[in-house]
Amino acid sequence: MNATDFPQRREKYLRLPMAYQFGNLATDLNRVVMGLSGTGHENVAFWVEQAKHLAEWTAASAKPEIAKEVLEIHQALANFEQNISDESEREAMKINAKLWSDRMIEHSGLLVEDRKPLKEI
Questions:
Q1: Of 52, 99, 91, nearest in space to 74 by CA
Q2: Distance (Å, whole) CA 31 – CA 15
Q3: Which of 1, 6, 30, 52 is placed for a possible disulfide with 101 were both Cys, Cβ 3.0 to 4.6 Å?
Q4: What is the pTM of this model?
Q5: Where would I find the H helices in the chain?
Q6: Cα 53 from Cα 25, distance rounded (Å)
Q7: In tens digits, what is the pLDDT along the chain, a chain of 121 residues?
Q8: Measured distance CA(34)–CA(97) in Å, rounded
Q9: CA distance 16 to 68
């Protein structure tokens, strides 16, 4: 993905249901965690950049109280980009990105236990 892809991707992303927007953001935050944990280390900067964009886009459609939380994530990711090589910052981001990923899954409602399956197998 490069900078020219973002306007087209943003438009497509914003057409997704909110549950899927939160799910996509959670996935990218989890990729940041995995990269900082040593699996995919070379892609950390890419996943941080992408998660930062998804956070911005998700906030645009979210309820105000959730949008504030998502924009705080966006800002933290932007700050982390400036300190990505600092080992203590990397450890803190690994912890925070996991917490944020879990929160975005909660906001998505995709893993609600009392939900009926979409299709019986």
A1: 52
A2: 23
A3: 30
A4: 0.85
A5: 6-14, 18-36, 44-61, 64-82, 87-108
A6: 9
A7: 555 577 888 989 999 999 999 999 999 999 999 999 886 567 899 999 999 999 999 999 999 999 999 999 999 999 999 999 899 999 999 999 999 999 999 999 887 665 555 554 4
A8: 10
A9: 20
CB-based contacts of 22, cutoff 8 Å, min separation 6: 58, 104, 105, 107, 108, 110
Q: Where are the domains of the chain?
A: 17-108
- Dihedral sign computed on CA atoms, order 83, 86, 89, 90: positive
CA angle 94, 34, 76 (to 5 degrees): 35
Structure tokens at 110: 């995709």
Measured in residues, the chain has a length of 121
Task: Give, rounded to a whole angstrom, the gap between the first and last alpha carbons of the chain.
Answer: 36
